[in-house]
Amino acid sequence: MSVRSGLPGGAGGAGRLSVRKRGRLGGTRPWIAAVFLLPALVLLGALVAYPVVFSVYRSLFDASGDGFVGLGNYGELFSDDGIRTALKNNVVWVVVAPSVSTALGLIFAVLTERVRWGTAFKLVVFMPMAISMLAAGIIFRLVYDQDPERGVANAVWVGVHDTFADPAPFPGAKPRPRADLGRSGGGAFMTRSAVRAADPVRLPLVAVRQEDVRDARRAAPAGPRPGAVTGTVWLDFTRGGGGRPDVIDGGEKALAGLTVEAVKDGRVVASAETAADGTFALPAGKAEGARLRLPAGNFAAPYNGVDWLGPMLVTPAIIGSYVWMWAGFAMVLIAAGLAGVPRELLEAARVDGAGEWQVFRRITVPLLAPVLVVVLVTLMINVLKIFDLVYIIAPGSSVRSANVLALQLFQSSFGTDVDEGLGSAIAVFLLLLVLPVMYVNLRRIRKERRR
Fold this sequence. Notes:
The chain is of the alpha+beta class. The chain folds into two domains: about 230 residues, MetI-like (MetI-like fold, Orthogonal Bundle), CATH 1.10.3720.10; about 120 residues, no CATH class. It has 15 helices and eight strands. The chain has a five-stranded antiparallel sheet with strand order 1-2-8-5-6, with no helix packed on it. The longest helix has about 50 residues. The two termini are about 50 Å apart. The N terminus is likely disordered. Its main location: membrane. Keywords: Cell membrane, Membrane, Transmembrane, Transmembrane helix, Transport. Pfam families: BPD_transp_1.
């Protein structure tokens, strides 16, 4: 007799015993799973399912919650100008922000793959992800400040501008009231009487900033000069008082570097620039009988850069801050995908004579397509919910131009005109916008699992 046959029930008995055990365990597993899943299901129901169902229900009622309006709130989504602006801005955000962030992440990941300091560069680019949206909004509110003394963006822009264009020497300066020198339009000043070579011209100005004449020399009276129309331009102001108007008193400062033009019949016939002592000289043959003009370029306000947070540029400016934060996220994911690209394919293409651009366009990008889709879809979902940056960066004068649906949802539900019915309708509409993107993402995940 074999050992196997000597066992109780033989092999068949053991098999039936194991089947019964598996069946008994399998019968209890759904209940055990339900017990462990119950807390998570309760939380999902309380934090996800209930708010969604209640939002759909609340969107069918008016602001008070008592009057049933049906789809009226949804109709207002497309009739209210503010909400339509928010919808347009959301389209811009969804198209631009994920595309630019993904493109920059791809470029950074590819370019830093072969350099020694690539890891350090990736760390620096990824660091903004450690900053909250609130902190990033405060940072970029300062970066985009209009004052070049505070805003980094305008400090750089003004520096570049002033490199190629000379600033006005005396911004804000002007003549005394009822003086012979008066306004001639466009910010320029012109004498009311014609000039003669025998009589030196005096062109006093006031309202000059002290820092503009701190190192200026004392003004000198211009004397007659053969064959020339002469004159002096100076700051007609004596510290401590006591000076006489339209007279060059001792200690009054010269205004050097000003352009003086002689104008006849609306045409400039001669021009000169004031010297360090404020004097100037024009050829008498051309300037005799003309009127003198100080062009507006002498007094133009200092260039303060670009109005980054104005109605025209506020949305691109905020998108720039978003890209600053999320380009590092895209770079890290794409770099991880790039590490899995077979190097033999790239080397084979190079051996066959393909250039780096061809390798990148025809091999690297197609192989990275699944990763690029993941990054793009993730950023699109994130952008549809953008709120913090717009709420913090956009000033009150431009918030309407920078409006997005998430911000409009907050304003409609909790702002000055509280209308929870309209706010709920916006929330449901946002959910409907996110669902197609989530569906595409889920299909992609299922296809990858099948592979």
